[in-house]
Amino acid sequence: MHINIVMEIRFPRALLAMFVGACLAMAGSAFQGFLKNPLADPYTLGVSSGAAVGAVAVLFFGISLPIIGRFTLPLISIVAGFLTLFLVISFARMVQRSMSAETIILAGIIFSSFLGAFISLMIALTGEELRQILGWLMGSVAMRGWPYIWMILPCFLIGFFLLFFNRHELNALAFGEETARQLGVNIPVRKLMILLGATILTGGAVAVSGTVGFVGLVIPHLTRLIWGSDHRHLLPLSMFVGAGFLTLTDLVARTIIAPTELPIGVITSIIGAPVFALILLRQRRVSS
C-alpha cells in the first residue's frame, strides 16, 4: 500500500517538479544569455503565455490529435509558444530594425498581455472545464502521475541537447554578433537552435504544470552570481538548481497549510519576487 502511494503519487510528483524546474531554469538562462538582458525569461518574452494559450485551447476544445494522443497537449503548447516568439521578434523588428533586447522584451510583454486577455475570454466562456483550467493556470504538479513524466521527458531531452550543443555559441554571442561571426559562429542557424531549444523546454514545462513564474528569471541570476556566466557551466548548474528549487517549493506548497495544498505558482511568485528585487538592488550597488 505505502509502496504504491510512493511510486504512483509521491515519486512522480517530485520527479515532475524537478523536470519543470530544470526546463524553466535552462530556458531562462538561454534567453538571458541570448539577449544579454537580465529581464529576459520565458514569461517576459511571451513564450509561456503563448504555450499557455495552446494548452488552454486543448483543454477548452478537448483537442486530441490522432496517433500522438496524450502528447497533443505538449505539442500544441510548444507550437503555440514558438509561434508567439516568432510574432514577438517580427513585431520587434517592425518597431526597431536593430531589435535591441529592450524592444524584444517590451514586445513580449505586449503579446503576453494580449494572450492573457485571450485566456480570460476562454475562461469566461467555459462551463464545467472552468475549475480544471483555473487550477492548471495557477501552476501545480499535484496528481499528475507518470503520463506527465512521459510528456515532459522528450521536451527536456531535446531542449537540453539543443542548448548544451550551443553552449560555446552562447558564450560567443555574449560578446556581440560581430565578435561571434568573427569566431566562426553561423549566427542565423545557431540563433534558431537556441530559440527552438528554449521554446521546447518552456512549452513542455507549461504543458504539464501550468504557469509557474519566476523560476526562469531568478534561478539563472542566482546561479550566475555564484558560478559565473560561462554557459558551459551555467546551463547544467541552472538545471540542477532549478530542479531542486521547484522540488522544495512544491514541498512547501503541500505542507505549509496542510491538508490544503497551495498552487506551486503562488509559492514561486511569493519567493521569487523579493529575491529578484534583492538581486537587482545588489547589482545596482555593485555597478554604482
UniProtKB/TrEMBL annotation:
Q: Which domain of life is it from?
A: Bacteria
Q: Tell me yes or no: is Transmembrane among this UniProt entry's keywords.
A: yes
Annotated localization: Cell membrane
Transmembrane regions listed in the UniProt entry: 42-61, 73-92, 104-125, 146-165, 192-222, 234-256, 262-281
GO terms for biological process? siderophore-iron import into cell
Main localization of the protein? membrane
GO-annotated cellular components: plasma membrane
Q: Which InterPro entries match?
A: ABC_BtuC-like, ABC_transptr_permease_BtuC
Q: So what family is this one in?
A: Belongs to the binding-protein-dependent transport system permease family. FecCD subfamily.
PANTHER family per UniProt: ABC TRANSPORTER PERMEASE PROTEIN MJ0876-RELATED, FERRIC ENTEROBACTIN TRANSPORT SYSTEM PERMEASE PROTEIN
This chain belongs to the protein called Vitamin B12 ABC transporter
Native organism: Halalkalibacter akibai (strain ATCC 43226 / DSM 21942 / CIP 109018 / JCM 9157 / 1139) (Bacillus akibai)
